[in-house]
Amino acid sequence: MTLIVWDVEKNVVRKARREDLYEAIYMITQLIPLGRVTSYKNISEILGVNPRLIGQALKNNDKPIIIPCHRVIASNGYLKNYSRGGIVVKKKLLVLEGVIVKGEKVSRKYFIDLKKILS
DNA sequence: ATTTGCTCAGCTC
DNA sequence: GAGCTGAGCAAAT
After folding, report:
1. Which of A36, A49, A51, A78 has most Cβ atoms within 10 angstroms of its Cβ?
2. Is the pTM higher than 0.90?
């Protein structure tokens, strides 16, 4: 479960550096459309890494404005955490975008499969 | 709805 | 190098 990349400068295959991996995660996160959500797992499957790594990356995000990390939730539909304001803020943002959140859970129908977008 | 076991990158020492 | 910690997941209860 490790992201392998082609190093253009050194002309070799190697393990992705942390910054490379995080950068990839941020880019993919930006593909989630307004009013939709996806799971940590969905992103992790695209990159072939551990789902927990996605959470690590989003938590440590250095571009809080342009990265809609509130649209990334647990695969069971629950909101999980949000480093900037917690679940309360995460829920508010989603509701603002038209997602119906019952308690702390989002219906399946709002999930989008990013692998299909990338196909 | 809650508990339990699994997992692995990153961090600390 | 060993041990701990999760913005997780899935199955069982």
Report:
1. A49
2. yes
Catalytic-residue membership of A69: yes
Tens digits of pLDDT across chain A (119 residues): 678 888 888 888 888 888 888 999 999 999 999 999 999 999 999 998 999 999 999 998 878 788 999 999 999 999 999 998 899 999 999 999 999 999 999 999 999 999 998 87
All structural domains of chain A: 4-113 (1.10.10.10)
Give me the catalytic one of A28, A54, A58, A69. Answer: A69
Nucleotide nearest to A58 (CA to C1'): C7
Measured at the alpha carbon of residue A115, what is the angle toward residues A109 and A116, in degrees to the nearest 5? 65
